């Protein structure tokens, strides 16, 4: 019962070795593989296969310790979560090679080389080491290292050496299985390797520059075989390739497949072989498909990428898009990559429509919102009921989720406003220059391309953003929250119905709620701009996840109201109340109130404090304010705090200039307000302050696209390039330069050339683009 | 001679243990520490000190294997470079704790716990382990692990255990030193630790939540002592803090010090203690200063940061800005961080000047360029002579480095053009809206903030970029190449002289050539926009290095010329020749020529080929073109190639539409040209193609700010947000929203409120900003 087979060498017979493992019939068909990556979280029994490229160093002498250690860390973590982990490992040859090389050097009496202060081991010419000897010499060290490493995580390991023959004999197979089951039951991680020392001499392999290595071709199939035999839920095969490409990686069109279905096999061309070890992609795929058929899910991924090695295994088990996932179940709809392609293509047609046609589409959508009211509200009711029954949403969130007849009506009105403004957005001529005779330049507005909008529970966001995208000629990917799934689905259908009028149905795509936001943020070169609409936490997460794709938005709104000593009492009270209390969770709500020192102990100041108390605003004192008081409210931890609630910080400043300096230092460049009756002071504040919105005698709450008169708002940006402040249609446009000539060349304008630059500005107003004004 | 002291325990005496190592007088004063980080590359003998937080896991039971492995990898790499590496390590206690806990559990007959399928070790209550016993139990395992790891890199290690007393006795100290010298001579890495087993019982330490740990307070000072004793050039002390802050980390103003000078000690407030282990920041700094005084350079850095752990040691040795560098030599000028602060502050004043004042400054600079011609040219001559004598620059680079009287004259003329355009840049009103009665909104142009321009050898770039920055009211950091150091210095002096006219001398700063570009790209929150001007390799490097700061530019220019079947022969030949041959290295040169299929085997086609042959352009064939030919030129590897030389790819397309699709697929959205006489075809091409510049019957070489009439050019952007195509002044501006009210609040506009939105567009032309038009 307590017998621990620390080293278990199953008997061997070499002549059958070259039969691939996966041709041996399955002992018994078992469960089903997972349909989606997100299901992988449920995987209990997991086989991790480590290819030689993962385990060994670049020069194939010695192990890649950093990688090995981080893999051990992840495996131990998953084991400690209650999963049953097994490892199929390479690396004995490399370990042995390193060891034997050292031995040979020493026996060649080169000890003196060690004393030169330079490591000359690398430069020495060495006899070719026989790989089987290396494997034998390295096996013990490799296992010792695994054991030492796993010991750091209180995890016990066991060594299993197998050959193909062990799977051919029923008795042996039963023995192997029962041993492995016993190990798993005892919470031990079995480490499995082929018994390389007893295989026939390897054939020389020209791919590896004549280096004599052991044919461990079948570590892939060994892992597959073991996974199925042990009814593992998941097989993770790590090597130095990213996964499966549809054509050889490196070729112009090669695309990494996120998910691969058995039926797709004819559609791919295999890529290059792994640098180290044997077993090209084709062999890996064969083994993977075999395991899949046997009911084990498979992910093939790169275990050598420095940036992800530390979490590649745990990421896969968390369902993230790493490498290629092998799935038997082909989902009904297109993948998100296909959706993006469809959106871009239809978006290009959308951009080439006449402005009136885009306007038509938006009006049609506005109509549908009221015509199909019942359908929308019944879908919304479903979402509401589900949300109430699960009790996961706060009352505020529930309110944002719910739609009503009147909400749909005002949405519809808003859309019609966007339709009007859309007439003058795409293709507008911003600049027109006569560069030379018959050489005319135009700068015109064009759509940005493909937008990804990620929004939380509010479903009314969907038609709004759709209308903005249509108006600006952009393709759009929408990712809504799970809680609004039904509402979003019907709203998206209506948007597509409206788009169909002019044959551009696919320009707006709704991404499945299954997709992880983080994965979407990695679709570089497919998406041109990401717009997160929701909490500042959402924005921060997206900003962090988005690599190489710009994100429009702001993660912080630390807005200030500065009350000057020449402020009007009424205005100050009104503006402070509105800025703080109108909607404290908004990003444009006041967080810090700056008060001119002369106002301390004046009636105005007392009135401000009374008002804040009446409104139940919790007051924190800035360090300077606290120093003026005998009994002060709690002092702030940081002057850079966004409370987002009925709380604020009060700080004292000596002058308008000090207020400006304070805001530059602690603000987030969102919206800042001065309350004063002195116009000069106000204008200086407005001029000097470097925020996206600067207000005089007006509440910070006006920082909003609708209130600014921009129509619907895409978001508020605190970035310093592209759009800044509340962003409407214009933030969704970029420009292109159109030059029309008659065979003009740069050489014509050189010193020897016949032409000179005119650079004459031409009027741009109301001229249709695309027609030359002179000839 | 060949005696290898694998384990060397120096004798011990406990009663003197608590004397800190660094109070023991130096045996002998030696060399000088390095003045600059970049000198660290010369460090031959290096001590790496690994704090407990680095070596042990978060729960302090067991080692952080991934970190340890990557540290071993770096140390072995440096050792193999010929350096002499020594390690002072913690970790024995953690290793022993893990081991003893396991033993105790087993002896408590909890074997059955192992069979539950769950790892319950963590949940078990355990007796507090005596730290000295842990240390003794862990020491052997720790050393075995180090040895196993270093073995993978053919590196031999030796163990040294010391106590304070070993430094007090001259004879012992001599023994220790001679042992260490012998080890270094034999290319062995000594691994040094305090002999914890023999120290007096530790005092309980409340900072560590009552966990009973050994007082290893003095591993910092041990490392310092050893470094000085062994005349090490560099001591790298790794723990879990980023380095030294000027005030406690986490407070609003805390700033990580890049370099710390002994004289600055009074100006800092010490931060929190390291989470694991003993020895707060103050102790580390004391030890570091002591080592510095002894002639050893010191860097304190974080060895636990997942993103950099794999290269923290090698980065430090390469002179990168990691952690805090302790230096005795305070440089004369300000640090780059101080320069950025100065620039931002002066830049704000620059932005608040009247447009005429900014224009004055630019004109003054233009004057200075001609007035001080002799001075500039003599500095340039120095650079040229140096470049010629070292022979590092190619003839093309030399040409770009050289200035002449006539170059200065045209520079001066260009600056005057910028001065004119500067009149209408900052503070321009783009939009004006009457939001409600007495509530008026303006959108006005404002500078972006602080620009960092990195440019390669061309020194004429400096006055140009300076003028653009002044015109747009931006602060500017300039980083030029080493080869133009003298020229850049004088040009920068002249720029500051011009700025002084209006008291904003500091708005433009020249960064020392010592600074690494990569480090500058990390000054997030200090720099708002980076503009690399130079090779596409430079741009790519900067884009990769810039985290969180936008980069304006493009890394690829794969421009196409499409010759339609209705093209004019003359125009086609002229445009192709100019696009490819005028300046093949430019980003706007043609890389791929697309030819309509019907042109094959026509005289036009033959003429094109003849012309390309005459111009010595090497032709590569696209796959489709190759298939049409019996004997084709070499087929392209990728249709996405930027040759940047007298080479191009020719491909055949069936239609204008196919040309557009080809360019969308393989192009870089830079500049693409159609040659045709058919206006409809041309207009469709111009409309459909989604590149920054689309040309009809004009050479791709026109894609250039000067040729477009934008005045001087900042660069060409292929990004889809902010500026696109050739970027002039406008790309250096952003906007802010100014709202002027009379106590307006958002609540006034609610259903219960008294006001309604007007959103009336007001005329913007020629109204000075800042004054209300109505009352």
Strand content of chain A: 15-25%
**Gyration radius over CA of chain A:** 34 Å
Task: Count every beta strand of chain A, where a strand is a DSSP E run of 2 or more residues.
Answer: 25
The gross shape of chain A turns out to be globular
Overall mean pLDDT of chain A: 84
Strand order of the largest sheet of chain A: 1-4-5-3-2-6-8-9-7
Total individual domains of chain A: 3
Return the CATH topology of the largest domain in chain A: Carbamate kinase
Helix content of chain A: 25-40%
**Contiguous uncertain segments of 5+ residues of chain A:** 1-29, 109-114, 117-125, 201-216, 272-279, 767-775
Architecture of the largest domain in chain A, CATH level 2? 3-Layer(aba) Sandwich
What can be said about the biggest beta sheet of chain A?
Answer: 9 strands, mixed
Largest interface (CB < 8 Å): A-B, 121 and 121 residues
Specify the structural class of chain A: alpha/beta
Distance between the termini of chain A: 97 Å
Name the quaternary structure.
homodimer
CATH class of the largest domain in chain A: Alpha Beta
The CATH homologous superfamily of the largest domain in chain A: Acetylglutamate kinase-like
Count of helical regions of chain A: 23
Walk me through what this model shows.
The structure is a homodimer of 775-residue chains. Chain A has 775 residues and is an alpha/beta fold. In chain A, 52% of the residues are buried. Chain A is built from 23 helices and 25 strands. The radius of gyration of chain A is 34 Å and the shape is globular. In chain A, the strands form 5 sheets. A 9-stranded mixed β-sheet of chain A has the order 1-4-5-3-2-6-8-9-7, with helices on both faces. Chain A starts with 6 loop residues before the first strand and ends in a 14-residue tail after the last strand. In chain A, helix 3 (92-107) crosses helix 4, helix 10 packs antiparallel against helix 14 and helix 10 (355-371) crosses helix 15. Chain A has 3 domains: 37-326, Acetylglutamate kinase-like (Carbamate kinase), CATH 3.40.1160; 336-545, Aldehyde Dehydrogenase, Chain A, domain 1 (3-Layer(aba) Sandwich); 560-707, Aldehyde Dehydrogenase, Chain A, domain 2. In chain A, strand 22 and strand 23 (725-727) form a beta hairpin. The interface between A and B is large, with 121 and 121 residues. Chains A, B: Residues 335-624 form the Aldehyde dehydrogenase domain. Chains A, B: Can form homodimers/multimers. Chains A, B: Residues 44-302 form the Aspartate/glutamate/uridylate kinase domain.
């Amino acid at each position: 019962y307590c017998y621990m087979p620390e080293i278990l060498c199953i008997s061997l017979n070499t002549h059958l070795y070259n039969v691939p493992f996966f041709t041996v019939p399955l002992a018994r068909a078992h469960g089903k593989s997972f349909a989606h990556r997100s299901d992988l979280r449920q995987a209990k029994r997991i086989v991790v296969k480590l290819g030689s490229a993962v385990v060994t160093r670049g020069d194939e002498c010695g192990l890649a310790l950093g990688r090995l250690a981080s893999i051990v860390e992840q495996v131990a973590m998953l084991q400690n979560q209650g999963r049953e982990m097994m490892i199929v490992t390479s690396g004995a040859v490399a370990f042995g090679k390193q060891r034997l090389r050292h031995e040979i050097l020493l026996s060649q009496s080169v000890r003196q080389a060690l004393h030169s202060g330079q490591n000359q081991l690398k430069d020495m010419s060495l006899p070719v080491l026989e790989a089987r000897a290396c494997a034998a010499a390295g096996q013990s060290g490799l296992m010792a290292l695994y054991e030492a490493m796993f010991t750091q995580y209180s995890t016990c390991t066991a060594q299993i050496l197998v050959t193909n023959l062990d799977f051919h004999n029923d008795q042996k197979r039963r023995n192997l299985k029962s041993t492995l089951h016993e190990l798993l039951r005892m919470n031990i991680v079995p480490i499995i390797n082929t018994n390389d020392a007893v295989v026939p001499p390897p054939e020389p392999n020209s791919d590896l520059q004549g280096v004599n290595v052991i044919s461990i071709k079948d570590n892939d199939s060994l892992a597959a075989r073991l996974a199925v035999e042990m009814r593992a839920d998941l097989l993770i095969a790590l090597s130095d390739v990213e996964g499966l490409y549809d054509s050889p990686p490196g070729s112009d069109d090669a695309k990494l497949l996120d998910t691969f279905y058995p039926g797709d096999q004819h559609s791919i061309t295999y890529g290059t072989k792994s640098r180290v070890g044997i077993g090209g992609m084709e062999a890996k795929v064969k083994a993977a498909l075999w395991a899949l058929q046997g009911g084990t899910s498979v992910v093939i991924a790169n275990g050598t990428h420095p940036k992800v090695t530390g979490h590649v295994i745990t990421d896969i088990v968390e369902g993230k898009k790493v490498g290629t996932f092998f799935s038997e179940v082909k989902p009904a709809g297109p993948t998100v990559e296909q959706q993006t392609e469809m959106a871009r293509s239809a978006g290009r047609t959308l951009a080439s429509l006449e402005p009136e046609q885009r306007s038509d589409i938006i009006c049609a959508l506005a109509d549908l919102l009221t015509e199909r009211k019942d359908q929308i509200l019944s879908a919304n009711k479903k979402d509401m009921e589900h949300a109430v029954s699960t009790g996961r949403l706060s009352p505020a969130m529930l309110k944002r989720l719910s739609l009503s007849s009147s909400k749909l009506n005002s949405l519809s009105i808003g859309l019609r406003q966007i339709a009007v403004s859309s007439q003058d957005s795409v293709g507008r001529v911003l600049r027109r220059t006569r560069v030379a005779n018959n050489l005319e330049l135009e700068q015109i507005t064009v759509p940005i391309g493909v937008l990804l909008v990620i929004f939380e529970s509010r479903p009314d966001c969907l038609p709004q953003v759709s209308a903005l995208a249509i108006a600006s000629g952009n393709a759009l990917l929408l990712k809504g929250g799970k809680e609004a799934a039904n509402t979003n689905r019907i709203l998206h259908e209506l948007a597509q119905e409206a788009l169909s009028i002019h044959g551009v149905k696919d320009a707006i795509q709704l991404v499945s709620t299954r997709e992880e936001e983080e994965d979407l943020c990695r679709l570089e070169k497919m998406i041109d701009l990401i717009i997160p609409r929701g909490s500042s936490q959402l924005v921060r997460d997206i900003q962090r996840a988005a690599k190489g794709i710009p994100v429009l938005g702001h993660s912080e709104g630390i807005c200030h109201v500065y009350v000057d000593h020449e402020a009007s009492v009424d205005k100050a009270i009104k503006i402070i109340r509105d800025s703080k209390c109108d909607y404290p969770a908004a990003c444009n709500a006041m967080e810090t109130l700056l008060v001119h020192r002369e106002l301390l102990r004046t009636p105005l100041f007392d009135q401000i404090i009374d008002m804040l108390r009446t409104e139940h605003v919790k007051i924190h004192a800035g360090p300077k304010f606290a120093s003026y008081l005998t009994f002060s409210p709690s002092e702030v931890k940081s002057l850079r705090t966004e409370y987002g609630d009925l709380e604020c910080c009060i700080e004292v400043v000596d002058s308008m200039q000090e207020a400006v300096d304070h805001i530059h230092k602690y603000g987030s460049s969102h919206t800042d307000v001065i309350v004063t009756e002195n116009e000069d002071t106000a204008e200086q504040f407005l001029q000097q302050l470097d925020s996206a919105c600067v207000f005089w005698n007006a509440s910070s709450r006006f920082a909003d696209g609708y209130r600014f008169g921009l129509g619907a708002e895409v978001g508020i940006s605190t970035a310093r390039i592209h759009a800044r402040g509340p962003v409407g249609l214009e933030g969704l446009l970029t420009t292109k330069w159109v030059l029309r000539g008659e065979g003009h060349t740069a050489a014509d304008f050189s010193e020897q050339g016949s032409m000179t630059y005119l650079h004459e500005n031409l009027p741009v107003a109301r001229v249709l683009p695309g027609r030359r004004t002179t000839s």
